[in-house]
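SAMPLE LOG
Freezer: B-3
Tube label: C17
Construct: single chain, 265 aa
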Amino acid sequence: MRAHSALGWPFSGLSRAALAALVLPIALAACGNGGAADRNIDSLDAELADGNSSGNTRDPAMMSALQQQIMVDPALASQANYDAIRPPAQPYSAPAAPEMMAVGRGTTGTSTSETLKSAPAPVRGQGCPKCSAARESLTLGGLAERQSPQGTSACAANINYSTGWANRLPGDVPLYPDARVREAAGADSQTCALRVVSFASTAPLQTVLDWYYTRLSKVGYSAEHQADGDDHVLAGTKGEAAFAVFASVRTDGGTDVDLVVNRGN
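STRUCTURE (predicted):
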């Protein structure tokens, strides 16, 4: 056996058995410290979880709220995401500035105070193909393209947009007296004098139809009335001239109107 110096191994005087007896408890103690730490963490987690659970149990209002069913108001459900950005149903059209809006003005023989003749009742059994054409048209030009006679639809190919067209309607097919124009378009050529105007009126739908029927029948236009629910069309011709009044009920009781005229006087 090799000898150790006085400054060397401190346990050189101990036998292997004595040395093992001394080192083993130290090693076991070191291993045991990690397990105790883990147990302490597990115990802390359990205490926190138990504390939260007992806290909720001690709060009846919270427990009642958590256990109740979610209530939904059907009347408000449609308002969800009201401000969400969605693709438009039709091409965007900004409203005309107030100073540029054409306003219908009563003229001789067109005042709403005159005695009106009742527009003919809607034709039964034929549906309303013109109503469908109006619903499916995304623009005033598209609406004009789907009109008959063919001259009106052909003129729509050269249509351009400006609220000024509302001031250039023919005298025999004017704007309704309180009309508020939203959009207008038109086309002029040797064979075209097309005007298409979209406007709103505070008058009830039937009053608007009666007014146009009274006015147009007086100057010689024929007139036919079609309807599909709240959508109505009064249309007619006089020689090569043609008109169509597309009217629908507004939520405020007024009337939305798209007026199409070609080659009026």
